[in-house]
Amino acid sequence: MFLHYLQLGLASLRRNPLLTALMVMSIGVGVAASMVTYAVFRVVSSDPIPQKSSRLFVPQLDNRGPRYNRNGEPPDALTYTDAMALMQARRAPRQTMLYQVGLSVMPQQPGRLPFKALGYATFADFFPMFEVPFLYGRGWNADGDDARAPVVVIGRQLNQRLFGGADSVGRTVVMDDQAYRVAGVIDDWNPQPRFFDMFSSNGYADPPQIFVPFNFAVAAGIETYGNNSCGSGGKRGSDRESWLRGECVWVSPWVELDDAAQVQGYRSFLEGYARRLREAGRFGWAPNVRLRDVRQWLDYRGAVPPESRIALAVAIGFFIICLVNTIGLLLAKFLRRAPEIGVRRALGASRRHIYLQFLAEAGMVGLAGGALGVLLTGVGMFGIGLVFQPQIACLAHLDLRLVALSLAVAIAATVLAAFYPTWRAAQVQPAWQLKSN
């Protein structure tokens, strides 16, 4: 019977091609607008490291006090002094500090000009903590941290540019007149949003291409290429050493904690550390610390751009308007077939049969609208950059999941929209229709 209802619906749609086209276009445009904005929202709101997001934490420490902090929240990064104190305490199974660096790379090919490569100064635990995939070699170990060795881990793009994609482990890269030995080459890796550096970036950027040991970078005088916040107190210092030992925050901290007991223990450690600094006279306020995991950190930092939420809400509202128009068109179409309904009811068809027939017809409209919506969604992907930042727009793409979702939403929404017109059509009185016609 269902196939029979589909045949009846198809014949009905063919009898009114203009009305059918209006309904299909209404559904298709509404679905496309919703799916394009959803594709962006899906990317920016996704968990960048779901397998470990509940075990990676950002420790925060208030070194400014209630007079200068923002809404009672500690700064989003640490001073060099506090970062080194947390590292030396070793209260987490894995821990790392990082800051952004930008170094000039000297190509080995004669005649080629130097170019800037961006990345991070960090510790050895960075690579296993964030499960960084390697194409060749590996990161340095803890001894490399302590020895302040001039080693570098480079990205796949930089390796292709310098060495033609070959295994470059052990070879030399010259950056800012300093020779570095390549310890490893990272495969394609660029978590979005870039959760581990929401202090110096907006979370969306090209993949980092260089990683150097933190201790070496500080000893070599490599300045931060990212943010450097000294607060309203203005404690910047008059030279590099006083700045380094001062109250400016520029180091992003991360720790890996495996269970609730370790989380509670580390939070207690942070509070105790802040309390000792108050007793020593550095702080004049009660301990104010935070320990946020990845999801909490992204929510706090507002990783989801507000324009993506607004665009999604507007698109959904537009889709609802399209559905209301579809309801009106279906109502007009179904009520025009009152004589046909009266004859079918007089021949023994129940209201249930009328429901099934017209809902099947609405489902066909939804399927056609969904197919048009998928096509328009693909076209809309090329225009995302007009609304969103290029770094965000390039992340959205049309995949099988989005295609399936588009078709499912189109069919389900159209069938739901058809319930009221179908109910009105099923109320037709067969005796009255037969008598009047």
From TrEMBL:
TM regions (residue ranges): 21-41, 310-335, 355-388, 400-420
Location of this chain's protein in the cell? Cell membrane
Entries under Pfam families matching the protein: FtsX, MacB_PCD
Q: Does the keyword Membrane apply?
A: yes
Q: Highest taxon of the source?
A: Bacteria
- Give all residue intervals belonging to the MacB-like periplasmic core domain: 20-217
Where does the record locate the signal sequence feature?
none
How is the protein disposed in the membrane? Multi-pass membrane protein
Protein name in UniProt: ABC transporter permease
